C-alpha cells in the first residue's frame, strides 16, 4: 500500500507526518505502507514570512525529518493526475518524467498569487507570494539605492489592502530606509477597490490598523483600482497618476491548477469542494487539503481560509485519513473551530484577533511578540526526532490558540 502526497508546504508536510504517525501507532511498517512526498525541493517555504527582509532565508529543509519519520521523497513537479489509473506524472528538473502509482493520493499543492489582466502588471509589477517573486523584489529594492534619488525611485505602490498587502506595506518604510538611508523621503501607497483597509477583518480592528498606517506614513487610495502600469508609474482607475518604480501586487490567491485535473466541483478560487473527511467527491482514493480544498471548519458555516493556520491542521487530517482509509480505520471529519489572526504592522507593532468576526485581543508590542513567535517558531517544521514529530502532529490537531 502507498500514499502519495503532492506538495511539501505546510499542508503537505503535515499530511505526511499525520500519515506516518498513524502508521506508527498501528504498528505498521514502512514496507507495508509507504508514504511518498513529491515536490520541486525537499523543503517547506515559509511563505507567511516572504514580506520580510532576506526572503531567501525563509526555507525549512525537510530531508532529515523525512528520514527520521520513514517518509520517502521524490523530487520533481507533478504534471498530470490520472484519477482513473490512480497515477501521477512527475517531471524532474532535467525534463525527464516518471509515473508514480498510488493507493491514496493527497493533493496539497498549495496556491499561487492571482495576477489579473491589468495592462503592464505582468511586465512591470512585483509580488511576494512565492520565493522566486520575493527574492526578485528584494533584489529590485536594493538596486533602487544605485539609482539617482527621484519621486519614482522613492515611491512604492502596493496593490491590495488585505492581510498580505498590509504586511508588505507596513514593512516597507523601515526596509527602504535601511537600503536608501534614513533621510530618504520614502512614500508607500496602498491602492484597493474596497471602501476600507482589511475589509475581510471587519470593523473591530479597523481603527487600530488605520492609526498604524497614519503613524508609519503609509497612504491609501480606496474605492479605486490600478488601471495600468508602465515603466515609470501607475495610472489609477480614476485617472490619478503615481510616479513609481515599484508596484507590488498582493490582491488574491488561486489554488494550484492541478485541482482542474480532478473531476470535482471547485469554488471561485479553484479549490475543490471536499467532503467532511477531505475526500474528493466521486474520487474516494483522493484527498484534497490546504489551499487546494474548500473545507467546512465548523457547524456555523465557516470555511477554511488560505492560510498556514488552516493548512497545517487540514494537512494533519488529510494525511491521517488517507492512512486510516488504507488501514481499515475510520476517517475523521475535519474541524477547526478556533480561528485567530495576527497581522504584522511594522517593526514594533501588530494586532491579534480571535474569531471569524475578528475581535481584537492584543495590540502593539505584545501582539508583535506573538507575531514573532508565530513566524519564527510555531509555523516551522518540527525537528528530526521521531517522537517530536509525532507529538507535533498531535498538537496540530488539538491546539487552541
Automatic annotation (TrEMBL):
Stated name of the protein: NADH dehydrogenase
Chain ranges of the FAD/NAD(P)-binding domain: 1-302
InterPro entries, A to Z: FAD/NAD-bd_sf, FAD/NAD-binding_dom, NADH-Q_oxidoreductase
Root EC class: oxidoreductase
A Pfam family recorded for this sequence: Pyr_redox_2
Cofactor(s) annotated in UniProt: FAD
Family: Belongs to the NADH dehydrogenase family.
Entry's Gene Ontology molecular function annotations: NAD(P)H dehydrogenase (quinone) activity
